[in-house]
Amino acid sequence: MNFTFPRLVLRSEFLSKISTPSTTYAYFLSKRNHCAVTLSLFQKSGEENLLVVGGGAAGIYGAIRAKTLAPHLTVVVIEKAKPLSKVKISGGGRCNVTNGHCVDNVILAGNYPRGNKELRGSFFSTHGPMDTMSWFSEHGVELKTELDGRVFPISDTSSTIIDCLMSEAKKRGVVLQTGKTVTSVSTTTGGKFSVKLEKRTVDYVEYVEADYLLIASGSSEQGHKLATQLGHSIVKPVPSLFTFKIDDFKLAELSGITFPKVKAKLKLEGVQKSIPEHTQVGPMLVTHWGFSGPAILRLSAWGARDLSESEYKGSLLVDFVPDLHIEDVKSLLYQHKNKFAKQKVVNSFPPELGLVKRFWKYILEREDLVEDILWASISNNLLVSVASHLKNCSFCVKGKGQFKDEFVTAGGVPLSEIFLNTMQSRIQSHLFFAGEVLNIDGVTGGFNFQNAWSGGYIAGTSIGNMVTSANMKEEAA
Asked: Which among 232, 257, 384, 420 could disulfide-bond with 227, CB atoms 3.0 to 4.6 Å apart, if both were Cys?
């Protein structure tokens, strides 16, 4: 579903009017023809306009909100690729809309490694998970909350969310242009934004002016570049939410095994400080290359910067029985030995440990225990060593993998440079940010999308109210 600017072919003598980017004219250059378009072609005289950089969740949501509050505001979204592409692939194609288990804002903010302190205030109070769920429900999307708190459309397909947003954007009159990239921006003497747009497929350049600018371009370099052009600084982006590659060829044989609950801790090379958040509890999955699952993904998020500093090398210490004390594990092994002395160790182990046979065999192999050995032959010292492996098993991390097709980064525009209650820049008036372009990132479970919905909604509300207020003052005058 695409919306396009109207086109008007002008005579060549009009090209003299577009010599500087501070005008409202745009130009197109090719070997065969010349044409120009002006902002007035999609904007009525005297009306203000909002240009949104990025057609993702934050950009589209913010555009809809601004247009809802200020119907006469011209809202144009520029997206270089397909709109809502991240929404399409998230949650395995089902779209994890938000998380329905975090009602308390402090607990909710605790799911954001970058932003956990700043987001405890008005951010989620203005538009939190319940507000997001209500919005989609009111717009015809039935949602469900799964046991772990993740919220999905009942249809189990992301297209339901995409269709809802695109339909509402069209209904409100939001203009969406794809295939174009905002390559630079500056301010004019009149206090507006002069925005340069380009098409990569053809030799095409436009210059347009905008009264309001919302940068919601995700973690791409594009948005960071535009932010710096307008006076902002950037916290260097590094990957977040990824799996761990483990240097252990025998581990690959366990691929597919899931541990419902482990306690995992990181010790990184070259990183001196100790951070409590580098310990996470939750499910873990063995993959062909190492480990994945919520516990690992949370570790990657909280340790994103330290992992980058260590070049993704270090030690991963895993407690496979976190609900049992080390003495309890030893006791279970002693009791099992006395009860099943004549059984092979590889075929029998305490059921209270909750392990699968393949993994038990792996633990025994780490102790060089052969398959034919009987429980009666196991010394107490060896049982202590097995217990230690179960409670504090060390793995060598040799690198990072990817988390499916979902890519999250830590870094971006510092939160100290914006007003979180409006999402407006502290440096440049009428400039707003929302989504991953900011130094905010969440753990897996719907939290990154909630950041997009909340930021987009607040920015759209602020812009819509500013436009409405300005119009009322003009009418009163």
From this structure: 232
pTM of the shown model: 0.87
The per-residue pLDDT of the chain, averaged, comes to 88
Q: Are 55 and 79 in contact (CB under 8 A)?
A: yes
- Are 195 and 131 a contacting pair, CB within 8 Å? no
Which token pair is 12? 């060549």
Rounded to whole angstroms, the Cα distance separating 201 from 251 reads: 46
Residue 435: HSE in the Cβ half-sphere, 13 Å Cα cutoff: 30
Q: Six-digit token pair at 317? A: 């210490």
Give Cα separations from 166 to 76, 153, 212, 247, 436 (angstroms).
Answer: 13, 16, 22, 45, 21
Cβ 252 vs Cβ 236: under 8 Å: no
d(CA 96, CA 57): 12
Identity of the amino acid at 362: Y
Q: In the structure encoding, which two tokens stand for residue 402, read together?
A: 């990817």
- Find where tokens 């269709």 sit: 163
How far is residue 71's CA from residue 74's CA, in Å, rounded to a whole number?
A: 8
**Longest Cα pair distance anywhere in the chain, in angstroms?**
99
Sign of the alpha-carbon torsion through 445, 449, 454, 457: negative
Which pLDDT tens digit goes with each residue over 146-178? 999 999 999 999 999 999 999 999 999 999 999
86: pLDDT confidence band, cut at 50, 70 and 90?
very high
Tally Cβ neighbours within 10 Å of residue 476.
6
* Measured distance CA(18)–CA(32) in Å, rounded: 18
User: Which domains, ranges and CATH numbers included, belong to the chain?
Assistant: 12-238+407-476 (3.50.50.60), 242-402 (no CATH)
The DSSP result for 261-298, as a single string, is EEEEEEEETT--S--GGGEEEEEEEE-SSEEESHHHHH
> Are the C-beta atoms of residues 295 and 284 closer than 8 Å to each other?
yes
Segment 195-204 shows an average pLDDT of 88
Which one-letter DSSP state was computed for residue 254? G
> Is residue 349 within 8 Å of 376, Cβ to Cβ?
no
pLDDT confidence of residue 403: 66
DSSP-assigned states of every residue in 365-431? HHTT--TT-BGGG--HHHHHHHHHHHHSEEEEEEEE---TT--EEEEEB-GGGEETTTTEESSSTTE
